[in-house]
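Example 3.2
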Amino acid sequence: MLRLMREGGLGLAVSISAIAQLILANIIAFLVFNERLTGVQTAGLALGLVAMTLMMWPTKAVAP
């Protein structure tokens, strides 16, 4: 997490942390409490994963 804060900034680190906590909470709810997600909730998780992937996608530095 510290590496992510140094390289990407605090905003990126907090966003990634929030999405990761959401996904992990749903995995625990599914495995431990046998919870089921609705279609809208599943779509929200998928969008969160896409957002996290796009935020962490490496970008090339443009030479001045």
